[in-house]
Amino acid sequence: MHDLSRRRRMLVLAICCMSLLLVSLDNTVLNVALPAMRRDLNASVAGMQWTIDAYTLVLASLLILAGSTADRIGRRKVFSVGLVLFTAGSLLCSLAPSLGWLVTFRMIQAVGGSMLNPVAMSLITNTFTDPRERARAIGVWGAVVGVSMAAGPLIGGLLVDSVGWRSIFWVNLPVGLAALVLTLRYVPESRADRPRRPDPVGQLLVMAVLGSVTYGIIEAPAAGWHSPLILGCAAVAVASLAGLLVYEPRRAQPLIDPRFFRSAPFSGATVIAVGAFAALSGFLFLNTLYLQDVRGLDALDAGLYMLPMAALTGLCAPLSGRLVGSRGPRLPLVVAGVALGASGLLFAAFSAEASTPLMFAGYVLFGLGFGMVNAPITNTAVSGMPRAQAGVAAAIASTSRQTGGMLGVAVIGAVLAAGTAGGGDFVAATRPAWWIITGCGLLVLVVGFATSGRWAHGTALRTAAALEPEPVLSPASAGAPPRV
């Protein structure tokens, strides 16, 4: 794939970004439509919550399987199937006659979505083989991630207010069909030189870990943290994680190769992804509720208020990609951690929501931080790894993002629910949640700095050599910038 012309490589990047736009927008647009969906389908709040969580759970559970399957049987093939499933699931969601069917169709969407993001990143990795060119391409990818997730409330508000909640799924149809046609026409097929065997036991253990944790966090506020149900979920999660740690190292070709995590930059990227996306999901969750429930704005106006965040994310993501390509990941990660932490601190310690200018300053800082964090996460996850395992490495990074998003809403939602129980003040109840977001920013800063120096670069080199002694993706951007 490295023999493709620059124009063809740019086209592959555009097609991959189209698929990312589908999945990322679908995650955030739905939140704005929940009140309208609830009225139309006569659903409970818990039922509406599952329209989001069923999707996230299936997506996170299958991302690694999709990445390894694409490396084995063909990336374009799996990518095309994912586009078909996601587009078909979107059409079914728009026609759903009841909540139960909507949740079912959302799960079909998620199966397709799991085949898009990690496979698209693997396509990009194998198309852009020059480290600096690849870093810039990932910067563009990061811009799409940030803009689609941050602008979701604006687009969702516009569609819900003007057409209705079902229209949020119609948007996926033309984009999905166009991406499918372009994929079949322009994206060359590629696969790993030495295909990896399936790992059904590892896949089931991953699903058990994520499923039990998700279900336990969601149901704990209603069932009680010490109830048999929640304790059972905790036991399943611990047992499944232990099973993964014991079983996977014994396989010649595991679903998740534990040796990946010997690379400090790779492990750091995984932790940073969880922290950054937990901060994002919590930030969107708190602000959407505040703007609509406290300030009384409609869905569209609430989305317009958050435009500064979307704009800064879109502007900073390509810049971050160029910085990673020229200087390495440390500077973007430090800037991201400081900006995310400062944004959370404005709300936690200085009541930024009480002053519109200060609130917008918090939005700008968060957009800056989130725009800077995506490129180093993705680039570090795939750089330095054998190209044959690029799909799995990218899938682990994508799974970390989804896990962070899931935990952000679950944990911050639980904190907020506890603070508002019995009629507590909403703004006062958000204080602990904003401190959690501030802590996520600090996590990005500390882990990013610690895993981007010369020592970390050495662990990446040793890991790459252990994984495959043949030529690997240049680790120059995996943790050792040209100038540290």
Description:
The protein is an all-alpha fold and 484 residues long. The chain has 2 domains: 6-199 and 251-477, Growth Hormone, Chain: A; 200-250. The protein is 79% helix and 0% strand. The protein has helices spanning 6-41, 45-73, 75-94, 99-114, 117-127, 131-162, 167-170, 172-186, 200-223, 228-247, 264-294, 299-305, 307-327, 330-350, 356-382, 390-420, 426-450, 454-467. α1 packs antiparallel against α2 (45-73). 56% of the residues are buried.
Helix and strand element order: HHHHHHHHHHHHHHHHHH
Q: What Rg, in angstroms, do the CA atoms define?
A: 21 Å
* Assigned CATH architecture of the largest domain: Up-down Bundle
Number of E strands: 0
| Count of discrete domains | 2
Low-pLDDT windows of residues? 469-484
- CATH fourth-tier homologous superfamily of the largest domain: MFS general substrate transporter like domains
Binned, the helix content reads over 70%
Bin the strand percentage: under 5%
